[in-house]
Design brief:
- This protein has helices spanning 21-24, 38-51, 59-74, 133-150, 179-186, 190-195, 221-233, 248-252, 281-294; strands at residues 9-12, 78-86, 89-91, 94-96, 99-107, 117-123, 159-164, 196-202, 211-214, 237-240, 258-261.
- By secondary structure, it is of the alpha/beta class.
- The protein has one domain (9-294): Zn peptidases (Aminopeptidase), CATH 3.40.630.
- Helix 2 runs antiparallel to helix 4 (133-150).
- The radius of gyration is 17 Å and the shape is globular.
- The protein binds zinc ion.
- Zinc ion (ZN) binds next to helix 4.
- GO terms for molecular function: metalloexopeptidase activity.
Length: 295
């Protein structure tokens, strides 16, 4: 693909490997009832209500990234941060500056070279005119709820949780958005690519009363897995095809398995009206239950 961001610098910032592979062996398997809405709503209130608009290269974005890094760290996850360059442009009609953005990558130290693993991601940035409660503090909130549910519990495979920078568009083409997830896919080794069993993007997961499970193509084995997970979790869902407008697409367009959870239309989309009350904690809980059930 043209115009890919170059490989970013990675820096280790997390310390405690509280839930490292060895100590997880004695823990019980995680289940949907372990998902809590409190950490998800705390994220929505802080990101949308306190920090506000956070375009991927803005100082407010880095404050949001520091906050998410600290939350993962407090939950005992190890955190890497990947910096990558992003061009300036027009984001939903508003100018945004060129500069670096940042992916926050949390793991439990149990991903082994060549061994299967799973990824869950959500974009942390917003368009300039929106505090982004639903788009996408909701996704980050569910990501943190999943982190909390899983911390001291076993999953079927090692899991990596990623807050992506600069997902929102900075121009009209397919190469003008999803910068963070493309930078993340770019730095995966051939071995990591071969062993990735699925990536789920959480993007607008706090509106509506059924979880939207979307894939790029009509038939998608990973989407089927998420449908089965929703059924096990007792969460209402709807299935969608042709879904290419979130970070899972950076994986799929590079030949890797990816699906999106979320995208129910709502009035405040990409506007100053995307505020905390837009997000329904019950819908966050449904999405978190589906993800935990899949893990
Ligand atoms: Zn979004």
């Amino acid at each position: 693909m043209a115009d890919r961001p170059r490989l970013g610098r990675r820096e280790l910032v997390g310390g405690a490997a509280a839930a490292a592979a060895g100590t997880l062996a004695g823990c019980r398997r995680v289940r949907p009832d372990d998902a809590r809405t409190a950490p998800a709503m705390a994220a929505v209130r802080h990101l949308a209500g306190v920090i506000g608009p956070r375009p991927g290269t803005a100082p407010s974005y880095f404050r949001a990234a520091d906050w998410v890094t600290a939350r993962f760290g407090r939950l005992g996850w190890q955190v890497d941060r990947q910096r990558f360059p992003v061009p300036g442009g027009l984001s939903w009609g508003e100018p945004v500056d060129a500069g670096d953005s940042l992916n926050v990558i949390a793991h439990r130290g149990d991903v082994r070279a060549g061994a299967p693993w799973l990824a869950v991601g959500a974009h942390l940035d917003t368009v300039p005119q929106s505090p982004g409660a639903e788009d996408n503090a909701s996704g980050i909130g569910v990501l943190l709820a999943v982190a909390q549910a899983v911390t001291w519990r076993r999953t079927r495979l090692p899991v990596v949780l990623i807050a992506f920078g600069a997902e929102e568009p900075r121009g009209p083409t397919d190469d003008d958005h999803h910068y963070g997830s493309r930078a993340y896919v770019d730095q995966l080794t051939p071995e990591q690519r071969r062993s990735l069993r699925g990536m789920v993007s959480l993007d607008r997961v706090g509106v509506g009363d059924a979880v939207v499970i979307g894939s790029a193509e009509d038939a998608d084995p990973l989407r089927d897995e998420l449908v089965a997970a929703a059924e096990r979790a007792g969460a209402p869902y709807v299935v969608e095809s042709g879904q290419r407008s979130s970070d899972h697409w950076s994986f799929v367009r590079d030949g890797l398995p990816g699906v999106r959870l979320g995208s129910t239309p709502y009035a405040g989309y990409h506007s100053p009206g995307d505020v905390v009350p837009v997000v329904d904690p019950r819908q966050l809980e449904r999405a978190a239950r589906v993800v935990v059930s899949w893990l």
